[in-house]
Design a protein that fits this description.
The protein is an alpha/beta fold and 276 residues long. The protein has a single domain (3-89, 164-271), classed as Metal-dependent hydrolases (TIM Barrel). It contains nine helices and eight strands. It has helices at 18-26, 44-50, 84-112, 118-126, 132-141, 148-155, 168-177, 198-211, 225-237; strands at 3-7, 32-35, 56-67, 70-77, 166-167, 181-184, 215-220, 241-245. Helix 9 (225-237) links the parallel strand 7 and strand 8. The two termini are 15 Å apart.
């Protein structure tokens, strides 16, 4: 059996609609999938209705957090989207993202002399969840960069937006209150980030366990065999759930569905320990 537990739709920063994503998964060899959009559960109901009955679907979310001094992304699996505490946290996130968006729009104008058109602004404000990728895609369409990653590095990465992340401890507790399992996403570093050392990961993990983390995303599309082996060993030593995912974003990242390492080899789902 094949699994991919880290997938994004255009309800956050993926390019595929929920319908397009479900169609791709239904025609794929994946057996177990989780939709984990950033800071929103908007696509879960429709996605669950569209997924083929021979696929196992896990309701998920990915929360951008600051846990103590640790910048991290927390995946929540098996969540109940109707939990009041989770709904309240998501609403708080919408306010934080709007503040960040306004700061970045002003930065583009003041620092780079790039003023967004009414049509571009209307499109941004109409979205449920706006992240840096959406602004970068606008810059790419204008011909200011070849793809969104160079656009972000050149025009947006130096923009100081302050701390608009969720409190990691609160996020972990809310996931648990919603019936979910909190998992530390790509703990060695995510897309475009320099990977931290094994020693630093071990030190941070002690804190993350104190905060209530219950699993590690050990299999990840940007990780080498050595990194995966280390994470699996570490998860077992700390009695943590083992998960894995591609971090698929459609055309917004060059990662195919089901890719769970840097060699594009799909992983047997039996290696995961999170399935209920």
């Amino acid at each position: 059996m094949k699994a991919d537990l880290h997938i994004h739709s255009n309800c956050s920063d993926g390019s595929d609609t929920v319908e397009e994503l479900a169609e791709k998964i239904n025609s794929s060899d994946l057996d177990i999938v989780a939709l984990t959009d950033h800071d929103t559960t908007d696509g879960l109901k429709k996605f669950g209705e569209l997924i083929s009955s021979d696929k196992k679907f896990i309701r998920g979310i990915e929360l951008t957090c600051l846990a103590g001094e640790i910048k991290c992304h927390i995946l929540g699996y098996y969540i109940n989207p109707e939990t009041p505490e989770l709904k309240a946290l998501i609403e708080k996130g919408k306010v934080l993202r709007r503040q960040k968006l306004e700061t970045r729009i002003k930065y583009l104008k003041d620092v780079h002399g790039i003023e967004l058109t009414k049509e571009e602004l209307d499109w941004l404000y109409s979205r449920r969840s706006v992240v840096k990728t959406h602004l970068a895609n606008i810059l790419v369409k204008r011909g200011l960069a070849k793809s969104n990653i160079p656009a972000m590095k050149k025009y947006l990465d130096d923009c100081k937006t302050g701390n608009t992340k969720f409190d990691g401890i609160e996020a972990i507790n809310v996931i648990k209150k919603s019936g979910g399992i909190p998992v530390w996403a790509h703990p060695l570093g995510g897309e475009g980030e320099e990977h931290i050392s094994q020693d630093l990961l071990q030190k941070q993990l002690i804190k993350m366990k104190e905060y209530g983390i219950e699993g590690l995303e050990c299999y990840y599309s940007r990780y080498s065999d050595e990194e995966i082996k280390f994470l699996v060993k570490t998860a077992k030593e700390h009695n943590l759930f083992i998960t894995g995912g591609s971090d698929y974003h459609g055309t917004n990242k060059n990662i195919p569905l089901g890719r769970l390492n840097n060699k594009d080899i799909k992983i047997d789902a039996k290696k995961f320990t999170i399935f209920k």
